């Protein structure tokens, strides 16, 4: 009987979770991805295998239009990155938590930092 890569990975995760839970009792813990200490290996592994399987701890979501109302009782995260001083055309949705994951300037000039800060002040 042959197993797919996703079945093997799921079995390994279940086994390691069971062992970890036995060692710590019934406390809940956040699972750390096995590649978290080696980003290059993680990128290579998930990039190569992304067409074949979805890691069990990653849940894909469909993007929502920027003006979608937030349901009551939910926390909305607004995540962007790589704006490179090109924030003029961004339609910023309402959110409770804003995350900019980096590369907000093109050249790192103080004027670009000020422009980004001004833009944040207008939208947050």
TrEMBL record:
InterPro entries: Metallo-depent_PP-like, UPF0046_metallophosphoest. SUPFAM superfamilies: Metallo-dependent phosphatases (SSF56300). Gene3D superfamilies: 3.60.21.10. It comes from the Eukaryota. This is Calcineurin-like phosphoesterase domain-containing protein. It comes from Etheostoma spectabile (orangethroat darter).
């Amino acid at each position: 009987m042959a197993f797919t890569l996703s079945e093997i990975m799921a079995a390994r995760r279940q086994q390691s979770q069971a062992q970890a839970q036995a060692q710590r009792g019934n406390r809940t813990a956040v699972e750390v991805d096995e590649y978290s200490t080696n980003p290059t290996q993680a990128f290579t592994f998930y990039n190569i295998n992304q067409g074949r399987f979805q890691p069990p701890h990653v849940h894909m979501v469909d993007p929502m239009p920027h003006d979608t109302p937030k349901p009551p009782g939910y926390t909305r995260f607004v995540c962007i990155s790589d704006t490179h001083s090109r924030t003029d055309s961004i339609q910023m949705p309402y959110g409770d938590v804003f995350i900019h994951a980096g590369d907000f300037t093109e050249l790192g000039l103080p004027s670009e930092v000020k422009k980004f800060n001004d833009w944040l002040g207008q939208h947050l």
